[in-house]
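Researcher: Go.
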Amino acid sequence: MEIGKPKVKTCVEKTWEDEDFENCILKENPTKTVHVYDTTFDSCIFRHVDFTKIDMGNVDLVDVVFEDCDLSNIRFDKKLISRVLFKNCKMVGTSFVEASIKDVQFEECNTKYLNFAEARIQKMKVTESDFSESSFLETKMKNIEFSRVNFYQTEFIKTNLNGVDFSSCDISESYFDYESLKGMIVDSFQCESLVGMLGVKVKK
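Model: Structure:
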């Protein structure tokens, strides 16, 4: 599956004091408190930034790369997330409730306790990341690719997983309601676990 890449070729290095979040590269944490509200990160690259130390909210993301950043507990609820790469980021408890997500990649991220409730996701690729104990509640998903993702104790409720391949992933102790199970792709070992969740016993 082809994912739209972030368009960040013309970025120039800036500091947080510039308060400009378009066509920029930011590599360091601010030296003083920065308030970032009601704006769009547009064509930006962030490296080694701890966003938990930045007062931030109501921010859209368009053509953005996050590398080795900490975005834990940041709320992107009801926001636009388009052509974004999260690479080797910590995002524990980050929220995407009712967000519009398109052409987004997670690579080698610690993303436990994510909340995608009622999000609309189109074209998302997740590779070697920890999505354990996350929540997909009434999430609309289309063109999704998961590769070696940890979904331990993650819940999928009223979420269309038709055609989504979980065969390389850990889905142990995850919860799927019947509606979400339809059409999802698993391996034979995972199948036994899912059948048991439905109350069916497999005779060996």
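Model: The first helix runs from residue 178 to 181.
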